[in-house]
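A quick aside before the break. I want you to see a complete sequence-to-structure record at least once, exactly as it would be stored in a machine-readable document. Don't worry about memorizing anything.
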Amino acid sequence: MRSGSALSSNMQPIIEFKNVGKTYPGEKTPAVHDVTFSVAPGEFVCLIGASGGGKTTTLKMIAGLEEPTAGTITKPDVVAMSFQLGALFPWLTVFENVALGLRSRNMPEETIVRTVDHQLRLVNMFEFKSKYPVDLSGGQRQRIGIARALAVDPAVLLLDEPFSALDVMTTAELHDDLVRIWRETKKTIVMVSHLVEEAVSLADRVILIRGGSIQEIFKIDLAYPRREQEAAFAHDVQKIRRAFFAKL
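That is the input. The structure line, written in tokens, reads:
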């Protein structure tokens, strides 16, 4: 499948890239070029590709951390990103890390407490709200990073290789948690990964970015929870792997 969109004809995309390019100052070769795709509201999309292929640059342009040098991007005003291991502030408690974005909006304390408590319960971390990041495992810190991103009620949640530093068992647990959170919140999620199996485990669609442009887009039609030992799962993984490792 090489279509740039999973949208029906009467649905407006929440994110839309049209012939987008990004060339960094002093560089002759663009980090991304001629990137065109759409993301539907409530969709879970995973960007995969080799290191340096352009997937993180694409994610940063959705986040507004980078501006395109060519083409146009349509996206919502409120977008939040969670980084590897949550990128928490070590001098703040779990509660205050999650509350950070809310306090910057000068929200009433009662609203902040109610919102933070709700998000901590959503990620199964309410009992840890008085702890500091140093007291948490890597998986727990990642849960707090996701809670902090969701606390500002973003239209789109962005995840930049959130599980790459975690062990296999913790990653599997967080995959299940992330699918549950996605279904409960109905948020649009765009995630970067370098693992084909991870992308197939989570996403509605997998976008393969290679050499700075989209090589192929794959629709994943598997029921949740998705398990690697299932034949249909292995089939989708192998299909994407063939494209991933194909010679240019």
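Two observations worth writing down. The chain has two domains: 1-77+155-248, 88-154. The CA atoms of residues 139 and 167 lie 9 Å apart. We'll return to this after the break.
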